[in-house]
Design goal:
Elements lengths: L21 E3 L27 E4 L2 E4 L8 E7 L8 H13 L4 E5 L26 H16 L3 E7 L29 H16 L15 E7 L23 H16 L3 H10 L15 E5 L5 E7 L2 E6 L9 E8 L6 E10 L3 E9 L14 E7 L4 E8 L8 E6 L5 E12 L25 H29 L6 E2 L9 H5 L6 E6 L4 E2 L11 E2 L15 H7 L8 E7 L10 H12 L3 E4 L24 H4 L2 H9 L8 E8 L9 H8 L10 E10 L6 E5 L7 E5 L4 E7 L2 E7 L3 E4 L3 E5 L6 E8 L10 E7 L2 E2 L23 E3 L3 E6 L4 E6 L5 E5 L2 E3 L2 E5 L8 E6 L1
Parallel strand pairs: 4-5, 4-23, 5-6, 6-7, 7-18, 19-22, 22-23, 24-25
Antiparallel strand pairs: 1-35, 2-3, 8-11, 9-10, 10-17, 11-16, 12-15, 12-17, 13-14, 13-16, 20-21, 24-26, 27-28, 28-29, 29-32, 30-31, 31-36, 32-33, 33-41, 34-35, 36-40, 37-38, 37-41, 39-40
Helix pairs in contact: 1-2, 3-6, 9-11
């Protein structure tokens, strides 16, 4: 505990480091046994009840058959290689205190921290084939320390490994996608090197445990390939872009494509007939009479559009934040057919050489699932001051709920873009097998001008290639290395609906989700801690009957009968709304009956002085509004305090998998047109056993949808999320100037700041809140580093990392009422969980009432029986 009991709430002007109504709130280790110490949840050493297995669709320990839920962390790059035993021990102990029982060992193979000792490779070398024994020893020591504190390990194999000429590859290896993603699914030598890496990493004996990682029951998960799909990354258009690979990699993929076509068609005539048979009728325009060009400028940007007709436009991009998608113009109200070929042709020029992105997507004000999601077209073009003609052919998908728009994305740099002679119509005169092309001669190129069946063949080939990769890698791990831990290939939301089939052999399903990940300026969007933006709105604002933000997006990917994991989750700092993350995540995941959650990530937690300012967008422990809710969230989720919804909705998908949609969430929307999807009433899952072609894709309801422990409400300022289980309750959202209540928790909040906050109460003895002898109440709103200065539209603060002393948190001025069966004492807690001051509290008619307005500042209150 610091030298002071509680932190003073400063009454300063906004020009000073700590704004009025805010307080310092540093990370401190909780005192053993205090209300903030959650280490007791871990019990003994990880693996002492046997290895982790899958039983009845959930993770369990083999020895006793007990279900185990994981609240995890990510230890990335340098964090996975503590320099000494003391650092490893500190790290493991502090993670356990935070309620963490699994650590994802991530970016072990990274290239950027090699020379600083933060990678598996030998410092000072370019060798990315042979694991360095000294670095492996550091990793082994960490695994042993984690195990001793009841923390399992999730071992990642291929994440950021980057081969170069030094490993015997041609110079063109440098022009492949970052970390050789996509290529590593089909290039034989790269696949062989992945197996060799797994052998080196998983077979070596850990001198601190006497077991290899392959045989250690404390290794709960092995992940083959992080965030990767041959079909494409996350929600981008699947199948696109592989024609841009450099040789010899493009040639290798093209040869495999032609071999696949040869196996699937009797001859070239049959191939030509099949592709031509699905050709889209030409000449139909998706434009409506009302279609017009409009500006699309996000806060802090300005776009001017002049357009006499839909076939031409002048687009002026004013100086802004430099993030490409945040300055655009679009042609609205387009009516595309699903699964049809369209040709877009136009001429364009710019006042200076510059790129633009041309996309087709949903015609709605906000972004659905991800700002990169399109409906078939995303292409980058290089413009010059001279007029140039362009022709783009694409096959549409994901046409549901709303019309479409054609966008010219131009925020990379200010300037003017001119478009003329624009034509958008169905069909393509050059789609299909062209004269002189032959699969048997190996001359059918990667498709860029396809008919619908040609494109579906391409996607099916890519999926078959992925399945072969998964079978090869999984077989090597299980049969060759004798890995017993559950294995997953990659995240199910990579590769679109193909992920459903690719992950069929996996023992569980994994996903990633970030709410408003920072965007970086410039055309490449390269990582830059000084030049970035966020949208800076709450995810809660997107919760509705047919969509539930990014959290709802991954909920629709949960597979029936398998554990469900989300191994990267975050509301990156310095979002004004990060306090919503932990309480909503823990309660919603409980309602949906998920199995593992891993906030991303944990930075420099093992050092002798782990406090100080937030160090990155993703720093969890130093973020008061995230880590502050750790004791609440870890107890609620790991102990299953929010009961799963009693009813279930299950999506069944008909083969072939690309027959009706490119993305699973689109099928959910199509199969339940005009009705709610059941995010807060039903457990949602999709069945990965495809129906035969003579069956229809459909959703089955099991049990009647009813109200659950989780619901949404509305105050005069905005939405509120409420969860009310017997041993825990939370209220999150626009609480300022309002009184909001669950059955056991009520909060009456003054107007303050942005009026957005989160309140949580959890029983520390697992009794119902009203009967509990010890309850932890947590309140948080905004948090960040001292001296942060937002721009005028609150989308960036620039480089504020590791600056300004201890983190700061906004006080939530409120009257809290907690249902209890008698009089209780209320103590304000210091950052280390010790009781710093007793508060006045009143008890009347079953409700205990206290105020957070007076006295020193704190995030936490302990309510105890006399």
């Amino acid at each position: 505990m610091a030298a002071f009991a509680l932190f003073a709430v400063r009454n300063l002007t906004s020009a000073e480091p700590i704004p009025a109504g805010w307080m310092e709130w540093p990370y401190e280790e909780p005192k053993p046994g205090s209300a903030l110490d959650t280490s007791a949840l871990n019990g003994g050493a990880a693996g002492e009840h046997g290895r982790v297995v899958v039983r009845d669709g959930h993770f369990a320990t083999e020895g006793d058959g007990a279900r185990i839920r994981f609240w995890g962390c990510n230890l990335s790059a340098s964090e996975a290689f503590p320099a000494d035993a003391a650092t490893a021990e500190n790290l493991a102990r502090r993670l356990a205190q935070g309620g963490i029982n699994i650590a994802r060992l991530h970016h072990l193979d990274n290239p950027w921290a090699v020379d600083s000792g933060g990678s598996i490779w030998k410092p000072g070398t370019q060798d990315r084939i042979h694991i360095d024994p000294a670095q492996l020893d550091k990793l082994h020591r960490l695994v042993a320390a984690l195990k001793a504190h009841g923390i399992y390990s999730n071992v990642n194999l291929k994440v950021s490994r980057t081969h170069t000429e030094a490993d015997g590859f041609p110079p063109s290896i440098a022009q492949t996608p970052g970390f050789q993603k996509r290529v590593d699914y089909f290039a034989p030598r790269i696949v062989d090197l992945q197996k060799d890496f797994a052998r080196q990493l998983l077979s070596a004996k850990n001198p601190y445990t006497g077991l290899s990682l392959a045989e250690d029951p404390a290794v709960a998960v092995v992940e083959i390939n992080n965030e990767n799909s041959l079909l494409g990354l996350r929600t981008r258009d699947i199948g696109a872009g592989l024609d841009l690979l450099p040789e010899p990699f493009r040639g290798e993929l093209t040869a495999q494509w032609n071999a696949w076509l040869t196996r699937h068609y009797a001859d070239d005539a049959a191939l030509a007939s099949a592709w031509a048979g699905s050709a889209t009728r030409p000449g139909e325009s998706p434009l409506s009479p009302a279609s017009r060009w409009l500006p699309d400028a996000q806060p802090g940007n300005e776009v001017l559009v002049t357009s006499p007709a839909p076939d031409s436009a002048e687009i002026v991009v004013k100086p802004g934040d430099g993030v490409r998608w945040r300055s655009a113009a679009y042609l609205d109200q387009l009516r595309f057919a699903e699964g049809a070929t369209y040709t877009l042709a136009f001429s364009a020029r710019a006042d200076a050489k510059r790129p633009i992105d041309v996309t087709v997507g949903r015609d709605e004000p906000g972004w659905r699932t991800d700002k990169w999601r399109t409906r078939g077209l995303r292409s980058t073009l290089e413009l010059t001051p001279e007029w140039k003609s362009y022709r783009l052919v694409f096959v549409t998908h994901s046409i549901v709920d709303v019309a479409s728009r054609l966008s010219i994305i131009a925020g990379h740099q200010p300037g003017t873009v001119w478009i003329k002679d624009l034509r958008l119509e169905s069909g393509s005169s050059t789609a299909g097998l062209q004269p002189g092309q032959s699969a048997r001669a190996g001359s059918v190129p990667i498709p860029t001008d396809p008919t619908p069946s040609q494109w579906n063949d391409w996607l099916t080939f890519l999926l078959d290639t992925e399945q072969s990769y998964v079978a090869e890698m999984r077989g090597f791990l299980r049969d060759g290395l004798k890995v017993h831990a559950p294995i997953v290939c990659t995240q199910a939301n990579y590769g679109g609906i193909a992920g459903l089939v690719r992950e069929q052999p996996s023992d569980f399903i994994d996903t990633h989700s970030y709410w408003q990940h920072p965007d970086f300026a410039g055309f490449t969007g390269a990582w830059d801690v000084a030049h970035w933006t966020i949208v800076n709105t709450p995810e809660l604002a997107e919760f509705s009957a047919r969509w539930f933000g990014e959290l709802g997006g991954i909920a629709l990917l949960r597979v029936s009968g398998k554990p469900f994991s989300a191994s990267e989750l975050d509301h990156p700092a310095p979002s004004d709304y990060a306090c919503e993350m932990y309480p909503i995540l823990a309660t919603f995941a409980g309602l949906q009956d998920w199995d593992a959650l891993y906030p991303f990530d944990y930075v420099a937690v093992g050092g002798a002085s782990p406090d100080g300012a937030l160090r990155s967008f993703f720093d969890q422990t130093r973020h008061p509004a995230k880590w502050g809710f750790g004791p609440f969230a870890t107890r609620v989720f790991r102990l299953g305090l929010v009961l799963p919804a009693a009813s279930q909705r299950e999506l069944f998908v008909r083969a072939p998998v690309f027959g009706e949609a490119n993305h699973v969430d689109v099928l959910w929307l199509k199969q339940q047109t005009g009705r709610e999807l059941g995010f807060l009433t039903d457990r949602l899952s999709v069945n990965d056993h495809l129906l035969p072609a003579d069956r229809s894709t459909h959703v089955e309801q099991r049990g009647e949808s009813r109200l659950t422990a989780v619901r949404l409400a509305q105050t005069k300022r905005g939405p509120v999320y409420l969860a009310d289980a017997a041993p825990a309750a939370t209220i999150v959202g626009y609480l300022g100037g309002a009184t909001v209540s669950t059955g056991s928790l009520s909060v009456s909040c003054d107007d303050f700041g942005l009026n957005f906050a989160a309140v949580g109460a959890v029983s520390l003895d697992t009794k119902p809140l009203a009967d509990s002898d010890r309850v932890l109440v947590t309140l948080a709103a905004r948090a960040g580093n001292q001296g942060m200065r937002w721009n005028s539209v609150r989308t960036t603060t620039g480089d504020i990392w590791e600056k300004g002393g201890q983190p700061i948190a906004e006080r939530v001025p409120a009257t809290v009422r907690l249902r209890t069966d008698g009089v209780r004492q209320v103590f304000a807690l210091a950052p280390d969980g010790t009781r710093a001051a007793q508060l006045e509290a009143e008890w009347s008619e079953g409700w205990l009432t206290f105020s957070t307005r007076e006295g020193g500042g704190t995030l936490h209150y302990e309510v105890v029986a006399r």
